[in-house]
Each structure stands twice: as C-alpha cells, then as structure tokens.
From TrEMBL:
Lineage: Eukaryota, Metazoa, Chordata, Craniata, Vertebrata
Keyword Kinase: no
Stretch forming the signal peptide: none
Domain of life of the organism encoding this protein: Eukaryota
Domain LCCL: 13-54
Protein name per Swiss-Prot or TrEMBL: Cochlin
CDD domains referenced in this protein's UniProt entry, alphabetically: vWA_collagen
Length: 465
C-alpha cells in the first residue's frame, strides 16, 4: 500500500477523492491500440503498444473489482512534427523573464528529442516586427539546437503577437526552410501577459494553412489590468480550436519548465491536432474518365491535361492527398488506385500515361465500379468526365455512391446531356455540375474544381466527429 495524490493521476474518478487516500495497485500486462485521452489537465498519447500497465482501486476493494485506470509510460512515438516556436521578445517581458523563457524553450526541445527523423524545431521572435532566428532545417541535432536557443538575443519592443503569427504562417513552413511533406505543422506561441495587436486574422490564416496553433500564456493579466487588454478573448481567437486543448496557461515564468513535459504530450498527440488536415493534404480524389469512341484520342489527351491540373493542386503523398483513376467504356479499367503512388511526380506520370480505350458509354456501371474498387472511407471525391449519354442507368449508382459519403462532380463536354450530368452530381447541383461545349474549355474549370473540392471538404469537416 502507498498513498497517491489525486493530481498525479490522469483520471481516477471513483478510486480516489481529491484529498488522496490509500490505494491498491496491481501490475498488469501491456496492451495494444491505446487511444489518447485528456483529463485533469493532462494529455496522454495514443500508442500502438506498451509493455505494462497497472490497475488502481481503493485499498478496501477486492482485486479487480473496483474502478481501474491504465496509462502507458511516457514515450514519444512517431512524434514527427515540424514546430515553429514563437517567443515573446517584447519590452513587457524584460531580460530576466526572457532568459527564463529561453530555459523553457530549451526544456521543450530537450523533451521533444529533436532529431533528423524526429521533431524539427525553428524559432521566431515576436517584437515590433517578427524576426526568424532559425528555421526547421537549421538544427536537427539536440546539442546544436540547445546552443542556438541559449545564444538568442533579447529584442524589446511591442508584443506584436499577431504580426509574428502572420509572418510565421506565411513564410516559415516552406520546403526551403525544411518543412517535410506529410508532417503535422505546429506553432507554439509564447506570450507574457497579452498582445499589443490583433491576433484573430493571423490565426485564421494559420488555421486555413493547416497549422496547429498552441498559445502558452504566462502571467495572465490580473483583474486590475484587464482594462488595458484590447481583446480579452485573444487566447480563444489565436488557437487552432477553442476547446481547451490548444490553450495553456502558466502562472509564472519561474514555473514554466515544470510544464514542458505536459505541453510536449499535447503537441505529440497527433490525433488531436485538428488543424493538420486541410483539403490539400487530406482528400481522396477519384477520376472516372470516359474513354468512349466519341471522345477521340486528341480530346482524350485534353481530358488528361485537365485532370492533371486538378491533381497538381493537391499535396499528394503517402500521408497526404490520394488520387486514383478509372477509365470506362462499356467496360471499366482501374488505371491506378488511390494508394498505388505516394508522390505527386509518380501520380502525374501515371495519369498522363493512361492509354485510350475506345468503345461505348456505360457511365452508371462505371460509377458502381469506382465506388467498389477505388474508395475507402474518408473525404472521397469522384470527378466524372464524359462527352455523351450513358447507355445505362446513372441515377441509382450515383445515389448509392453518395450514400457511402462520396461527393460526385460531373463534368460534361460536347454532347453530354445536362439531365444526366445533374442526375449524377451531388448537391448543390450547380456547384457540382460543369459543362463545356469544347474540350479546350476544360482547363478553365481547374481553379473552380479545386475551390469547390476544398469548400466541400471544409463543410464536411465541420459536421464530422
């Protein structure tokens, strides 16, 4: 038996009261597929496996009969993040607290275990104007990174946090700066007190860019200081999502290093990084291509150019967006699946290399084939390109696909009947139905198609759990 304080346990409701008490601890076997959770101010990690756990019950309860709690040891598993730390270098914080802030950032970096295949960290200072001190690719070895943090120079000036967030969102996460494709992007913003400028518009841009903004507020304004705060909801507006997970408050700079471990656990809870997914790196796009005789080889190549232009706009990778293609006449041919190619270069090469089939037009059967053979559950989009009337029913297969969560865009050319196009497209029909008299007009649809896919993605993300 031993006495365990309630605050040291993630969630022991039912086993302990707030004042602690004697408990019974029983070691148990490790398990698989542990889901992350957040309780009592602590975020646990989602892990595929851990070696051992324990059950916790009150001392008087029978073994195995009381409430139990299990948690893994603290491991950083697949915490491959690209992180921008935005430090407060304003006159408000002063030199002494700036040094304490550097200690905190160094502790974060050490806890993250920065490395070539692990998290990468860059740093921006917020002052009158933001200053990028080093980028993601500057230091991938822990000792070098810690030395760079130690050598940072205090700037002074106003607390223009909004400017710093905007600067970081617009310029920091680029491939030239070491951003890695498919890795979640995180911005950790440190602020002493409150910002001098507006953060809302900058934060909106960051969210739309797929950046997870965490705000660490140290020494929040006291009651008598609130009259000086232009926007008292700045924390809610700055973060990725106002759900408590992305906001972190610390009472004093003198205690910040104690919070490094807990903050890192949040950063590395990849399933909870809600802003990582954007339409550009999250959608599954299937192209259903009419290869009938009426299209002709030259026009078929124009169709492929049109589809390649759409695909080019997305971040295709093994952990990003996926593209697949089916060609149809009376028969169907899977040209390549959504997960056959993990780079944009290979996908574009495969798309442009599709050979023309020639034959009749059975669009309904092709939609059914694509539904069954192309998609898995996700943000699925089917772009149907056809130049004529289908010889089979299209309404039934299109409705079945949409019931499975597939959004259908119908793109008609030349003799494609408007009634058929609207029958197969998703609601609202006007947004998902396009028509061009000539094949040469397809390229003009590319920006509209990309915007519409992203609009659908945003709308579906708002209602999905």
């Amino acid at each position: 038996m031993f006495r365990l304080n309630f605050d040291h346990v993630l969630s022991c409701r039912g086993a302990l009261g707030p004042s602690g008490g004697p408990v019974r601890v029983l070691k148990q076997r490790g398990q698989h597929s542990y889901s992350s959770s957040f309780a009592n101010g602590i975020q646990s990690l989602s892990l595929s496996h851990w070696t051992s756990s324990f059950s916790l019950s009150t001392a008087g309860s029978a073994t195995g009969s009381g409430p139990s709690f299990e948690f893994p040891r603290f491991f950083l598993v697949d915490c491959q993040l690209d992180i921008a730390v935005v430090m407060d270098s304003s006159r408000n914080i002063g030199q002494r607290r700036f040094n304490l802030q550097k200690n905190f950032v160094a502790k974060l970096a050490a806890t993250l275990r920065v490395g070539a295949s692990g998290p990468h960290v860059g740093l921006v200072q917020a002052s009158d104007s933001p200053k990028t001190e080093f980028v993601l690719s500057s230091y991938t070895q822990p000792k070098e990174l810690l030395f760079a943090i130690k050598e940072l120079t205090f700037l002074g000036g106003d607390t223009n946090t909004g400017k710093a967030i905007l600067h970081t969102a617009e310029t920091f996460f680029t491939q030239d700066n070491g951003m890695r494709r498919g890795h979640p992007r995180v911005m950790v913003v440190l602020i002493d007190g409150w910002p001098s400028d507006d953060v809302e518009q900058a934060a909106i841009l960051a969210r739309e860019s797929g950046i997870n903004v965490f705000l660490v507020s140290v020494a929040k304004p006291a009651a008598e200081e609130l009259s000086m705060v232009a926007d008292r909801d700045f924390m809610k507006k700055a973060v990725c999502k106002d759900n408590g997970f992305f906001s972190y408050s610390v009472p004093s700079w003198f205690s910040t290093t104690k919070h490094a471990r807990s903050l890192v656990q949040r950063l590395c809870s990849l399933d909870s990084l809600l802003c990582s997914k954007t339409c550009y790196n999250s959608v599954n796009i299937g192209f259903l291509i009419d290869g009938s005789s009426s299209v002709g080889l030259d026009n078929f190549r124009m169709v492929l150019d049109f589809l390649a232009g759409i695909a080019q706009s997305f971040d295709i990778s093994d952990v990003g967006a996926h593209v697949g293609a089916v060609q149809f006449t009376y028969d169907q041919r899977l040209e390549f699946g959504l997960f056959d190619y993990s780079t944009k270069e290979d996908t574009m090469k495969a798309l442009r290399g599709i050979s023309y089939m020639s034959g009749g037009t059975a669009t309904g059967s092709a939609i059914s084939y694509a539904t069954q053979n192309l998609f898995r559950r996700g943000h699925d989009f089917l772009v149907v390109v056809t130049d004529g009337q289908s010889y089979d029913d299209i309404t039934g297969p299109a409705m079945a696909a949409q019931r499975q969560g597939i959004t259908i865009f119908s793109v008609g050319v030349a003799w494609a009947p408007q009634d058929d196009l609207r029958a197969m497209s998703s609601e609202p029909k006007d947004r998902h139905t396009l028509f061009s008299r000539e094949f040469t007009g397809l390229l003009d649809f590319i920006p509209l198609m990309v915007r519409s896919i992203c609009q659908d993605f945003m709308e579906s993300s708002e209602i999905r759990p």
